């Protein structure tokens, strides 16, 4: 069996960040918007570093104006995920981009995204759940409005609350109010940390926001005591190696710490983050892991099981996906 066909679970995927560049270019053309500056001549996204990436990401997202646009985006993204063997995915959703944090508008965007997810489940056999995500560099006040959108729509589909954006802006504790509100609404908690910030950023995030999962978290490797803590407490890392290498957090795959973290007992999972921006797919991540660290089918099976066990979905969904991950009897 090729690695592409293995059933996969992805926990860390930004919906807008997964937009194929041709999809965004098509929307811009329909709406007569000139965003040609965000593309290279070959049609791929053009940026020079992480901070520029955040700007280009927001420029690409500026073409998405309506629930209907997000419906189309969700179908385009899930088609690509399903083609890579993904059977369960959690995606980051931002009320900042979906109606400017207005609750009534957010409900309409969410309904459109869910409708597309239901359609994809019927036609492509992929299950999607949502994680509302505040954006760190937009500041704590906007995060509170975002958390309110999350808390008001929490349920069997909208299952988590998170934070993305510029990790070097502000402190985790600035966002504690928002995370407390989300936790009280029953949402699972995940926070981007240990990507651009070092081990201290991960430690402060754990103590101030109490997530069960960390987005990236890889720079915890710089502090052996923190690595032990992650392992002992069963904190799950949503590791995105292709993203880290493309953005220059690590110079190449063999320097990436995923293997060391795993050997030290930390629960790692693998995701693509913003796949077209980083020229990756889940199948490519698997191929690089196999080439670089010698991971085999059994390793990937355990990886997918760990991921679904860390998913924020309800237990019936988890049991159903676990069944699909069982190797077929031959
Ligand atoms: N938003 C989209 N991708 C991101 C990343 N890798 N880190 C922080 N925020 C993001
Ligand atoms: Zn991310």
Total number of strands: 8
Counted by DSSP, the helix tally is 13
Chain-averaged pLDDT:
97
Q: Which ligands appear in the coordinates?
A: adenine, zinc ion
Task: Indicate the overall shape.
Answer: globular
Under the CATH scheme, the architecture is Alpha-Beta Barrel
Low-confidence stretches: none
Cα radius of gyration in angstroms:
18 Å
Order of helices and strands: EHHHEHEHEHEHEHEHHEHHH
And the CATH topology? TIM Barrel
- How are the strands ordered across the major sheet? 1-2-3-4-5-6-7-8
**Any idea of the CATH class?**
Alpha Beta
The CATH homologous superfamily: Metal-dependent hydrolases
Share in β-strands: 5-15%
Class derived from helix and strand content = alpha/beta
Number of discrete domains: 1
The largest sheet, given as strand count, sense and whether it forms a barrel, is:
8 strands, parallel
> What is the multimeric organization of the chains shown?
single chain
For the terminal residues, how far apart are their CA atoms? 13 Å
